[in-house]
């Protein structure tokens, strides 16, 4: 309305037919997978064969589980709004996706494992735990149960501040939401760029660009964490504030 012609770049997350980007739907889960893989590499264990539990099987949780399984990880537990399923030998994720799609988007009743109560997922002996549901899911009530080496925050704000401090002090490597689930907003930026150009990339190019951005971001936060001896969440804020400070100084040239 303002410019007198269609300006698709003002909104992202659009259908492909309206100027959306290929790979956008899977982008947040793909970012979670990349961050988890890089954390495993840093901590010295192979993502292939690593055991993973996922809380939440919506867009982020299901895509994360699927991509991590494709990378060779063993998804042993998944819970959602209605129920959960556990199989120490690993869940068949393609079958689980089909089951969830056919049963009102829930894994409850899946026959490829044992039923798992929502609150039991926190205490599972796994390498990686991915809360990909709602905020404030990990509190001081359940944080002491967590045995995972890595906690990847697929959801926004799934861990309370007290629980985060407890887990960090306990030695759990927490990948904060501001980093772990940033694949979605990064690919929204890619969508904006493509709309501005009027030229759209193949999905392979979108995914390759996201891979590079996520790895660079993870490396920057990790190096900052090691340099200042702080947790990854604090390190992410340091990186962000430093960038704002740099830009502020540059803007001062034109004040």
What tags apply to this protein structure?
alpha/beta, seven-stranded mixed sheet, 7 strands, globular
Chain-wise SSE layout:
Elements: H1 24-43, E1 51-55, H2 59-70, E2 74-79, E3 84-86, H3 93-102, E4 114-115, E5 128-131, E6 150-152, H4 161-170, E7 173-175, H5 177-180, H6 183-197, H7 203-228, H8 232-251
Parallel strand pairs: 1-2, 1-5, 5-6, 6-7
Antiparallel strand pairs: 2-3, 3-4
Helix pairs in contact: 1-2, 1-6, 1-7, 6-7, 7-8
Describe this structure in words.
With 255 residues, the chain is an alpha/beta fold. 46% of the residues lie in helices and 10% in strands. It has helices at residues 24-43, 59-70, 93-102, 161-170, 177-180, 183-197, 203-228, 232-251; strands at 51-55, 74-79, 84-86, 114-115, 128-131, 150-152, 173-175. A seven-stranded mixed sheet has the order 4-3-2-1-5-6-7, sandwiched between helices. α1 runs parallel beside α7 (203-228), α6 (183-197) crosses α7 and α7 packs across α8 (232-251). The longest helix has 26 residues, at 203-228. The model has no long low-confidence stretch (mean pLDDT 95).
Brief characterization of the structure:
This protein has 255 residues and is α/β, with parallel strands linked by helices.
């Amino acid at each position: 309305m303002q410019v007198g012609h269609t300006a698709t770049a003002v909104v992202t997350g659009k259908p492909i037919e309206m100027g959306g980007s290929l790979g956008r739907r899977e982008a947040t889960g793909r970012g979670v997978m990349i961050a988890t893989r890089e954390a495993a590499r840093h901590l010295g264990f192979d993502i292939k064969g690593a055991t993973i539990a996922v809380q939440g099987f919506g867009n982020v949780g299901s895509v994360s589980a699927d991509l991590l399984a494709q990378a060779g990880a063993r998804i042993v537990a998944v819970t959602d709004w209605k129920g959960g399923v556990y199989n120490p030998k690993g869940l068949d994720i393609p079958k689980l996706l089909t089951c969830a799609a056919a049963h009102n988007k829930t894994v409850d009743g899946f026959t490829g494992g044992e039923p798992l109560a929502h609150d039991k997922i926190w205490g599972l002996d796994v390498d990686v735990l991915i809360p990909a549901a709602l905020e404030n899911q990990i509190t001081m009530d359940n944080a002491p149960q967590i045995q995972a080496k890595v906690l990847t925050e697929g959801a926004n704000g799934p861990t309370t501040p007290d629980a985060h401090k407890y887990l960090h002090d306990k030695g759990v490597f927490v990948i904060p939401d501001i980093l772990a689930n940033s694949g979605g907003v990064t690919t929204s930026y890619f969508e904006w760029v493509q709309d501005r150009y009027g030229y759209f990339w193949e999905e392979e190019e979108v995914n390759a660009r996201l891979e590079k951005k996520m790895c660079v971001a993870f490396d920057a936060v990790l190096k900052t964490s090691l340099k200042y001896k702080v947790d990854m969440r604090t390190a992410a804020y340091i990186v962000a504030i430093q960038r704002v400070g740099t830009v502020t100084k540059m803007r001062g040239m034109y004040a």
